[in-house]
Amino acid sequence: MNDSFKIVPFTSAYAAAFKAINQQWIEQYFKMEPSDFKALDYPQENIIDQGGYIAVALLDKEVVGVCALIKMDGNRFDYELAKMGVTPKAQGKRVGYLLGQHIIAKAKSLGAKNIFIESNRVLVPAIKLYEKLGFVEIEGPPSPYERADIQMEFRF
Fold this sequence. Notes:
The chain is of the alpha+beta class. It has one domain: Gcn5-related N-acetyltransferase (GNAT) (Aminopeptidase), CATH 3.40.630.30. Helix content is 35%, strand content 29%. The chain has helices at 15-29, 34-41, 43-48, 95-109, 124-133, and strands at 5-9, 53-59, 62-71, 79-86, 114-119, 136-138, 150-155. It has a 7-stranded mixed sheet, sandwiched between helices. Strand 3 (62-71) and strand 4 (79-86) form a beta hairpin. InterPro entries: Acyl_CoA_acyltransferase, Bact_Acetyltransf, GNAT_dom. Keywords: Acyltransferase, Transferase.
């Protein structure tokens, strides 16, 4: 990436982009579900205030990608990598990979021992990205998402 690319922490200024980028890919392949609206309509309250983090990728000051790290309490996973999306014009430019690396480093800095992902096998580029980042397929807990048909884990 070039000098005009950077990853910054979420602020309310990025809330509309966080929702729009995710809603675009979700509706392209699936349908929005209650858990999507909860996270995307109220990211500050439902992700950040709960001990999570959202990374925002900027290219020439335009939001081109987003990714959330959601704190998971009460089960075997420390965080969930969720709500990762890259704008169509920025796809294929390593934005997703750089966001993934950033999120993994952030989770490690927060003391995580592992990160959980739920996805769908129809999203072949996403699954390949997660594998490239070091995630492996597992049998995880029941999902709140109808569309989830694969679960993966990253261990530190």
